[in-house]
Amino acid sequence: MKKLAVKKNIECMACLECVRACSQAFYKEFDPDLSCIQIVAKGSGAKPMTCIQCGKCMKVCEHDAITQNPKTGIYMINKKNCVGCGKCVEVCPMKVMVHKEGNPVSKCIACGICVKACPMELLEIVEK
Prior knowledge:
By secondary structure, the protein is of the alpha+beta class. It is built from four helices and six strands.
């Protein structure tokens, strides 16, 4: 399974470049609420929160809008089937699913845009 991961022993400086890259790529604007990666305060520092590809979103979707890619293991949203009910957003343990009013829900697909944007090289795409 492919997923976005946070490397150990590297400090996040909360520059938000990963957040900017994600929201710009998928919504064409910089808005932290439209990013599938979030930076949260942790102690005296910051920590990126990423999708752990747990599948809880797929289990609650009543419209078959979320499926798991058999090759990569990534949970993907079929935007044609998504009605924007937000049930998947509610169950996400990492709180990184995006629901912009009037649009289908979005989630991390391990595309690597945030990885390239991080000046600390803190993020990586891994095979689990």
